[in-house]
Structure formats: C-alpha cells, structure tokens
Amino acid sequence: MFVSGWEEDDEGIAEKNPEDPAEQMLTAAETGDIALLEKLYQRDP
C-alpha cells in the first residue's frame, strides 16, 4: 500500500485568527477584496 507523506503533513500550520488585523489584510488581499483592504488600511496604516 502506498502512503504519501503529504497526506498527514499538518505540522507547523497555524489556524487563522479572524480578529488579527494583519490576518484580515492578508485574507482580503488573497481574495481580491480591495474595498476591505482600503477600509483596513485607513483604520490602521
């Protein structure tokens, strides 16, 4: 039976914190939400 080393490789992966301003900006950038990026930047340049 073939076992891939990638199947269970969750070590070192942190959960996203939706309350973290940096994480909010990264998520908005990843999804292309320009309006949210502008709003977050104005709130905390």
UniProtKB/TrEMBL annotation:
<protein>
    <submittedName>
        <fullName>Ankyrin repeat domain-containing protein</fullName>
    </submittedName>
</protein>
<feature type="region of interest" description="Disordered">
    <location>
        <begin position="1"/>
        <end position="22"/>
    </location>
</feature>
<feature type="compositionally biased region" description="Acidic residues">
    <location>
        <begin position="1"/>
        <end position="12"/>
    </location>
</feature>
